[in-house]
Structure to design on (255 residues):
């Protein structure tokens, strides 16, 4: 078995353990970070799978992971907004969005989407080993490397576009960042570039949050008290994110 396949299987097993732990935390409502940790683990799983798409079982597992992401996205967005409202002193509005959290968490823990991901993960290493026996993983390291390089090129091209879409850049940055994390032995980013990617993702995330909250404020009257602050913060976050993106582009040129 190739070293790269060994690595992929080891990562799959580690992520499976983390998902199972998140499932138990959600079922028992032990802490407020359980849903966030589930989604982060899911993102790492999808990043690991993306360069493996021509291997058996990958498409099914990707589809299952995507469905679980779709289920949990609005739930996590509501959690983040609730925290923002409480931090600004709008306790009642925040607590309304947290009402029924135990039931919501239990629903995710027992959802068909999460059960499907875990069921496929149970057999997925066997698929990979069978593919290895059939000669389907020859040159796997090179194939993964080429696919990750393609992601970097997409990001570089998008950054050079003067009319770049901040939302698309945020997604591309996530993709290269978590792809690099999934396959660190390929060494696509040094420490400095990793820091730039993390900062860019965070700054674009701050911008994206305000865009989404202001859109929701058009339909949710109890958000009206925050709109002036969010409007000002949106302008500031745009400037901050654009400056960070310029530094990221410069760092990529030195890569």
């Amino acid at each position: 078995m190739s070293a790269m396949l060994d690595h992929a299987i080891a990562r799959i097993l580690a992520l499976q353990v983390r998902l199972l732990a998140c499932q138990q935390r959600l079922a028992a409502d032990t802490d407020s970070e359980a849903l966030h940790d589930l989604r982060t683990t899911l993102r790492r799983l999808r990043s690991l799978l993306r360069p493996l798409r021509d291997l058996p079982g990958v498409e099914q597992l990707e589809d299952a992971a995507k469905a679980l992401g779709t289920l949990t996205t609005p739930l996590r967005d509501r959690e983040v907004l609730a925290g923002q409202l409480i931090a600004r002193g709008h306790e009642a509005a925040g607590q309304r969005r947290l009402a029924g959290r135990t039931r919501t968490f239990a629903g995710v823990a027992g959802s068909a989407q999460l059960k499907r991901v875990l069921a496929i993960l149970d057999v997925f290493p066997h698929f990979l080993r069978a593919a290895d026996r059939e000669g389907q993983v020859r040159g796997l390291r090179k194939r993964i490397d080429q696919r990750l390089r393609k992601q970097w090129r997409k990001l570089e091209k998008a950054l050079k576009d003067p009319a770049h879409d901040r939302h698309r850049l945020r997604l591309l940055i996530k993709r290269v960042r978590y792809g690099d994390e999934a396959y660190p032995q390929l060494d696509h980013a040094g420490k400095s570039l990793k820091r730039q990617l993390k900062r860019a993702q965070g700054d674009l995330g701050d911008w994206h949050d305000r865009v989404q909250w202001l859109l929701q404020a058009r339909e949710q009257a109890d958000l009206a008290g925050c709109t002036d602050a969010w409007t000002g913060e949106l302008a500031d976050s745009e400037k901050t994110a654009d400056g960070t993106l310029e530094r990221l582009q410069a760092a990529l040129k030195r890569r």
The chain has two domains: 1-138, 139-255. The two ends are 32 Å apart (CA to CA). The mean pLDDT is 95.
